[in-house]
Amino acid sequence: MIEATHKAVDVSATEIESRAAAWFRRRHFWSWSESDQAELDLWLGQSLAHRVAYWRLQGAWERTGKLTVLRPTASEQDPARGKISSAAAKIASVLAVVVIAAAAATAFYIFGSSEKTYATGLGGHETVRLADGSQIELNTDTQLRIDNSPRDRIISLDKGEAFFEVKHDSAHPFVVLAGNRTVTDLGTKFLIRRDTDRLQVAVMEGRVRLENADRSHPKLLQQGDVMVAEAGRTVMLNRSSRELANDLGWRRGLLVFSHTTLAAAADEFNRYNREKLVVADDATARLKLDGTFRTNDMKQFTEVAQAVFGLRVENRGDQTVISR
Predict the structure, then answer these.
(1) Are residues 91 and 160 in the same domain?
(2) Verdict on whether the full-model pTM lies above 0.85
(3) CATH assignment at residue 281
């Protein structure tokens, strides 16, 4: 099943690259009209993947500028039809293959090698500073990939949680891919948390554009806006500055709970620690508490739960069980 999934992704990526190359050849080796440009714009607008594939090819072309001498001259075109003459077309076809191959090789060297992966372990915390002045903080058990190419600022959040402080540049959009959603910076500080079956985007400052991977259903999120997508539904919330600051407590090594159920608090602690908290029964799980705790100090948490609610706490190897 896993292999089949990977193959489907590979085929799709190959088709996109092939289509981008076809557009590139058409634009650089044949006559180009306003209607052609409109078609290309439509194709680019259908998917971020389309734009990335074309941008990379265009970037490779620009970095191999000396190859532009291979373009057919005006004398090689049929003025009556506005197309390349038969002989020139054959030459152009051969040269197109050479140029595309050279561009692809350059793109692989420039873009393929520019992607770098950053990851934190359980309880880890890492700050990544980008060359453009932007900064990304990774929370526990997080993995993301960064394309550091000069033209693109594309981040793929594979899992976990990250806080973004972006140096805005409208000419080079800062885009985060998170599952089937894209988040585009519009001058922003924002948080993205991607769990197995849940995605949360919260804007601390400025604005972001949130949309599906196919650019459908775009939404503008402003300061205080929070989008939560889970179980096939999407919920939009608005939170106070204090609540948003509490969500970022992990940057200081803290977990801040406000009317939080013991079950939810236990889940948060388990994100940071190998020893796990287990809430034994539903009645205990529904109890709510307030407090601020170190992410690695489960002992303090269990002592508070024990003192406030009179609960039992039992250590069982790598588990701490809380019950009535």
Answers:
(1) no
(2) no
(3) 3.55.50.30
DSSP 246: H
Please give the residue range of the domain that contains residue 16: 2-112
151 and 259 both lie in a single domain: no
E-strand spans in the chain?
Answer: 77-78, 83-84, 115-119, 126-129, 135-138, 143-147, 153-165, 174-178, 181-195, 198-212, 219-222, 225-230, 233-238, 254-261, 276-279, 288-294, 312-316, 319-323
What tokens appear for 134 in the block?
A: 């932007």
Domain count, the chain: 3
* 227 and 284 both lie in a single domain: no
Question: Per-block average pLDDT, block size 10, for the chain (324 residues)?
Answer: 38 69 74 80 78 71 47 48 53 52 49 75 96 94 84 88 94 90 93 95 96 81 95 91 96 96 97 96 95 95 94 93 94
